[in-house]
Amino acid sequence: MTPKTGGGRPWGPIRAENPAARKLAETLRRHVDDSGKTLAVLSGEINMSKAQTGVYLAGKLPTQAFIAALIRATVRPELRERRQEEALALREQAMRPAPRTTPGAPVVAGPGAGYAVELAAAQARQIETYDRLTRTLEQRAEVERAKNNSDKLVMVLLNMIHQLDRRVNDLVKERDQLLARPPGEALEDAERKLARAEEQEQRARAELRRAEEKQRQAETLEARVTDQLRQLTDELDRLRAGDTTSPLDTLPALPDEPEAGPVSADPVGDDIDAVLARASQVNDEDNTTLNRVTSELNEPTAGVVQNNPPDNPTVLAGPSVSAASPLPGVPDEGQEAVRALLRRSPAPDLFVRFLAEAARWENVQVHGIKRQNAKPGAPLDYSGYLRLRRQGSQFGGFAYVYAEHSSINLRLHHTRDQLDAIGATQARTLDTGHRAYRVSIDLTDEASLTQALHLATLAYDAT
């Protein structure tokens, strides 16, 4: 078990030459824990590299200057003098360890045999924390993209609403002028254009409200992800402190991705409809992304059914879904919501057969979604999509399944050529959303079901 000091985040093992040196390292770690500061922050305040700070906190006898600087940075002013005296006294003891007095007792130097066990446990924890940190970095990139999309969309829609307002005013004037003339096609055309422009303005304002809400959600998530990154980075720093054999040389990093091209807006006719359709699509994609990250950050522990094979393999058709036996893998609280979606699905039987097969795979769990700003204890949401996850995986769900559309979104990033090479001719590649989930397939016939299950197997094995 990786040792902890003062109930804080775990540290790596201490490699000290004698008991006094070990106690000194434990004392200094406790001061760091009590201060609540990360190693990155602390290193900056004491003007020392993070690596060297970690070496001293891992048991190497520190200098007096290091002790004084660490106490000054982590201890309240009224206690600093006393704590510094205690730490310096331990340093003196460590420099002059008491000789063994038991005749014939072997002199053992170094950290002892138990250190190897502690080190192995700490390095295993390092790898686990590294994986979590990598996923959190991916989540931050997702949230940043969603926020950037919303920021751009708000500007586009504000400009569009301004232009639509002018267009409506111009069309009102044109209609009023035509009203003074005998009725004709020109008046009818002006009235059609006016009605269309007014409807477009209403749609633009509705999309603007959605985009502004996504901005607020993204800002909230960004703060949560940033805090989690800080905690995980510090946890990894602590576990690697003084470990010269660490299996991890550097922290994970994500390559920068090119920003999406700007959305153009033409205030006239079909061009406006096209931009509004794109605005709706971006809002939908960002909504899915933000809900997915929220769900993964919250990692729900309730509403899950593990290894739940279907009790009744009967194929379900649209009208009979509500009266069928329990949907495989779906928790009781989500049964009715998913059934309601299936009643609108183009291929409910195929969707249920996919779910029945995937839910029986080893350690597969079916999750609802914990929505943004949900109160503690609130039921999970099953009205949008389900998440299929392999228990213990650090990579989130291997598939997101949409009952209403009988659509499967998979944690794969195959190219078109790669999909064709494995016979997944009905699957499609995606250019938006999370970069790990770039393959989707709609269930339309037996061939598509076979291909979807094959792709789901690949995604399951990869997680």
Q: How is this structure best described in words?
A:
The chain has helices spanning 19-35, 39-45, 50-57, 64-74, 77-95, 114-179, 185-240, 269-298, 335-342, 348-359, 416-421, 446-462, and strands spanning 305-306, 364-367, 386-390, 399-402, 407-410, 428-429, 439-442. The relative contact order is 0.08. It has 463 residues and is mainly α. It contains twelve helices and seven strands.
Topology:
Elements: H1 19-35, H2 39-45, H3 50-57, H4 64-74, H5 77-95, H6 114-179, H7 185-240, H8 269-298, E1 305-306, H9 335-342, H10 348-359, E2 364-367, E3 386-390, E4 399-402, E5 407-410, H11 416-421, E6 428-429, E7 439-442, H12 446-462
Antiparallel strand pairs: 1-2, 2-3, 3-4, 4-5, 5-7, 6-7
N-to-C SSE string, H for helix and E for strand:
HHHHHHHHEHHEEEEHEEH
Largest sheet, strands/sense/barrel: 7 strands, antiparallel
Mean pLDDT: 79
* Radius of gyration, CA atoms, in whole angstroms: 30 Å
Q: Would you report the number of β strands?
A: 7
What low-confidence regions span 5 or more consecutive residues with pLDDT below 50? 1-7, 105-109, 254-267, 300-323
